[in-house]
């Protein structure tokens, strides 16, 4: 969903088939994932940065605008945005990826407040993973990354335990999420840079 034409096409189809769509579950999950190493000193890095913004940030925003009208007023409607622990302490090798996840955190906060103020009946939950063993950035064999099954199990357990949560932070991401509050931000950032 990295281009506006795709959003318009989906919106048109959803409008045409509103009766069918209204029978769908009341959850919209956005998980836009595009992460590539980026050097701000390399002119090619600008395209990498633009791709990160188009996919990770604008893709989520476009999906929200396309699907949100279908969720408003439905019982137990939820928008669930998957961000990253890097929204809270960036990984310097992927600056724009980290920035898009920080922006998505901010967007989720604002969306939650706007929907609550409009009495729209739509809950907004942010899921905050740490590194997960996937092919993203070659983490599939990384001992520092969380196995995908463990990540999914923990998120589902957190959803059951805290159905009204604003954020679901998996345990390996917690120290990063809380770095500012605990005064450990500089140490965590240094760890992320490998220094």
Question: Can you characterise this structure?
Answer:
This protein starts with a helix and ends with a helix. About 3% of the residues have low confidence. Helix 3 packs parallel to helix 4. The longest helix is centred in the N-terminal third of the chain and has 27 residues. By secondary structure, it is α/β, with parallel strands linked by helices.
Summarize the structure.
The chain has 195 residues and is an alpha/beta fold. The chain has helices spanning 4-16, 18-22, 45-71, 95-117, 148-161, 171-177, 179-182, 185-193; strands at residues 27-30, 77-82, 122-128, 167-169.
Secondary structure topology:
Elements: H1 4-16, H2 18-22, E1 27-30, H3 45-71, E2 77-82, H4 95-117, E3 122-128, H5 148-161, E4 167-169, H6 171-177, H7 179-182, H8 185-193
Parallel strand pairs: 1-2, 2-3, 3-4
Helix pairs in contact: 1-3, 3-4
Annotation, overall tally of beta strands: 4
Please describe the biggest sheet, giving its number of strands, its sense, and whether it closes into a barrel: 4 strands, parallel
Task: Average the pLDDT over all residues and give the rounded result.
Answer: 84
For this structure, the quaternary state is single chain
Report the span from N to C terminus. 37 Å
By helix and strand content, what is the structural category?
Answer: alpha/beta
Cα-atom radius of gyration: 18 Å
Q: How many individual helices? A: 8
């Amino acid at each position: 969903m990295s281009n506006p034409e795709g959003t318009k096409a989906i919106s048109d189809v959803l409008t045409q088939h509103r009766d069918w769509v209204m029978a769908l579950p009341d959850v919209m999950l956005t998980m836009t994932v595009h992460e590539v190493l980026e050097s701000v000193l390399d002119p090619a890095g600008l395209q990498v940065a633009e791709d990160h913004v188009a996919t990770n940030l604008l893709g989520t925003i476009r999906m929200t605008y396309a699907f949100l009208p279908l969720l408003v007023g439905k019982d137990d409607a939820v928008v669930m945005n998957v961000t990253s622990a890097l929204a809270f302490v960036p990984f310097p090798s992927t600056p724009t990826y980290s920035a898009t996840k920080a922006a998505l955190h901010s967007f989720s906060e604002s969306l939650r407040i706007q929907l609550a103020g409009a009495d729209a009946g739509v809950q907004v939950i942010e899921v905050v993973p740490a590194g997960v063993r996937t092919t993203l950035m070659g983490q599939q064999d990384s001992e520092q990354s969380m196995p995908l099954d463990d990540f999914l199990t923990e998120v589902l357990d957190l959803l059951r335990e805290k159905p009204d949560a604003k954020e679901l932070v998996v345990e390996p991401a917690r120290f990063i999420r809380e770095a500012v509050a605990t005064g450990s931000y500089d140490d965590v950032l240094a760890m992320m840079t490998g220094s």
